[in-house]
């Protein structure tokens, strides 16, 4: 591996992601699947985990990243780096640097699995692809003849996520794995993931595995925590997109009162490694400083909204609100302050035209109001500065 390359990434050398849509990807950060020489995605139905990892396609990506090339499958990281925002590629190389020194040949030690989209929340920035519960929201929009938000468009019902096949593939290779990461959906609602946990414990494999789970933090129980304690290490990334009424507004139908209680329960287990994860969006931009100050845990901010061009993007806010949010965040001394500064500068420099921006803001207002109607919520519960600006969009 050529670690001197400006595009080098450790992940394809020791990790593989098995995505929701039964496809294999370089990591959970990209929305694109590996494509083989016949221009066909690498699917779970055609390849086992090990076969995919050993494929010509994955080998080709390693060579590209080692040769200062920017393959489009990694565009999410390239876009962040071009905006001066710390990317997952850079974070991976830093966090997993021991594997850079240990391996000169590809060796699968890290699997990242999305078993299915089973979830119990209907977050405003999410989609049916990642939460089956959002079909309820979609159907409500259709029934009331309301305009469908961008995030809820272009999704298909009845997708076969092949969770059983994924589970069986994981069981086959688990004895050789150092790191087992799972996301969702909500992983602790996934029947197959819970079966893998039991399997790892029964086969005495858990003691050698670092378990990483990205979770909404709503489903912890004493029984579950007692099982997790069998693993070598456990890293929980808990998704929280604001405090108090901002949390209530975004992470419907759970409440700040309940998630705060869950976090206090988790904090009683000092063997758990916990961080919070927050998706930066219009609704929480002026609340991020409060989230940082609330928690003793590190908050990792993700600037990537899906789909690209989402009306919830902070980049479409007026400069005055961008500056106010940045001013508040600077006072926290959070380690991502430089990311925030670069993100704001990039957003200002790459503003849409006046007419395009008007259309985006109209779309945001319509999406906001329609969600409020369906959920009997009100954006008036958000920061007064944001409320005043949203009010101005009425006309």
Could you explain the architecture of this structure?
It is globular and about 60 Å long. It has 17 helices and 8 strands. It is an alpha/beta fold and 395 residues long. Helix 8 runs parallel beside helix 9 (191-202) and helix 14 (319-330) packs antiparallel against helix 15 (337-349). It has helices at 11-14, 49-53, 56-65, 75-82, 88-95, 97-102, 134-143, 163-173, 191-202, 222-228, 244-250, 256-267, 288-294, 319-330, 337-349, 354-375, 384-392, and strands at 15-18, 24-25, 110-114, 179-183, 210-215, 233-239, 272-279, 299-302. The model has no long low-confidence stretch (mean pLDDT 95). The chain is 41% helix and 10% strand. Strands 2-1-3-4-5-6-7-8 form an 8-stranded mixed sheet. It starts with 10 loop residues before the first helix and ends with a helix. It folds into 2 domains: 11-108, no CATH class; 114-392, TIM Barrel (Alpha-Beta Barrel).
- The tally of beta strands, per DSSP, is 8
Oligomer: single chain
Whole-number radius of gyration?
21 Å
* Total number of distinct structural domains: 2
What summary fits the major beta sheet? 8 strands, mixed
Which regions contain 5 or more consecutive residues with pLDDT less than 50? Answer: none
Helix content: 40-55%
pLDDT averaged residue by residue: 95
Strand content: 5-15%
By DSSP (H or I, 4+ residues per run), the number of helices equals 17
User: Might you state the CATH topology name of the largest domain?
Assistant: TIM Barrel
- Terminal Cα separation, in Å? 57 Å
Structural class estimated from helices and strands:
alpha/beta
Strand order of the largest sheet: 2-1-3-4-5-6-7-8
Shape: globular
What is the second-level CATH architecture of the largest domain? Alpha-Beta Barrel
CATH class of the largest domain: Alpha Beta
The run of helices and strands is HEEHHHHHEHHEHEHEHHEHEHHHH
């Amino acid at each position: 591996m050529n670690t001197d390359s400006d595009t080098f990434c450790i992940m394809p050398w020791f990790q593989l992601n098995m995505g929701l849509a039964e496809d294999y990807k370089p990591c959970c950060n990209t929305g694109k699947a590996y494509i083989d020489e016949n221009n066909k995605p690498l699917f779970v139905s055609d390849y086992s985990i090990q076969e995919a990892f050993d494929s010509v396609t994955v080998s080709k990506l390693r060579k590209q990243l080692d040769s200062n090339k920017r393959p489009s499958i990694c565009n999410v990281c390239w876009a962040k780096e071009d905006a001066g925002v710390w990317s997952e590629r850079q974070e991976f190389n830093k966090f997993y640097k021991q594997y850079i020194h240990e391996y000169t040949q590809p060796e699968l030690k890290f699997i990242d699995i999305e078993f299915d989209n089973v979830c119990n929340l209907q977050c405003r920035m999410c989609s049916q692809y990642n939460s089956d519960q959002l079909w309820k929201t979609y159907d409500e929009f259709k029934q009331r003849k309301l305009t469908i938000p961008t995030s809820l468009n272009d999704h298909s019902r009845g997708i076969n996520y092949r969770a059983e096949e994924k589970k069986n593939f994981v069981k086959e290779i688990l004895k050789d794995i150092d790191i087992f990461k799972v996301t969702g959906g909500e992983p602790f609602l996934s029947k197959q993931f819970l079966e893998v946990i039991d399997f790892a414990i029964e086969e005495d494999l858990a003691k050698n595995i670092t378990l990483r789970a990205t979770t909404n933090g709503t489903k912890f129980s004493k029984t579950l925590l007692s099982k997790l304690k069998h693993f070598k290490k456990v890293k929980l990334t808990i998704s929280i997109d604001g405090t108090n009424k901002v949390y209530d507004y975004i992470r419907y139908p759970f409440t700040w009162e309940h998630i705060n209680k869950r976090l206090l329960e988790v904090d009683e287990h000092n063997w758990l490694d916990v961080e919070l994860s927050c998706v930066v969006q219009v609704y929480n931009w002026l609340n991020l400083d409060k989230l940082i100050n609330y928690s003793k845990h590190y908050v990792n901010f993700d600037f990537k909204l899906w789909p690209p061009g989402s009306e919830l993007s902070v980049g479409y806010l007026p400069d005055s609100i961008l500056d106010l949010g940045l001013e508040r965040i600077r006072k926290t001394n959070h380690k991502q302050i430089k990311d925030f500064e670069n993100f704001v500068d990039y957003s200002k420099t790459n503003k849409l035209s006046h007419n395009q921006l008007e259309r985006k803001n109209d779309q945001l207002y319509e999406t906001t109001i329609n969600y409020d109607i369906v959920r009997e919520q009100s954006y008036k519960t958000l920061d007064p500065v944001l409320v005043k600006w949203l009010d101005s969009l009425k006309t």
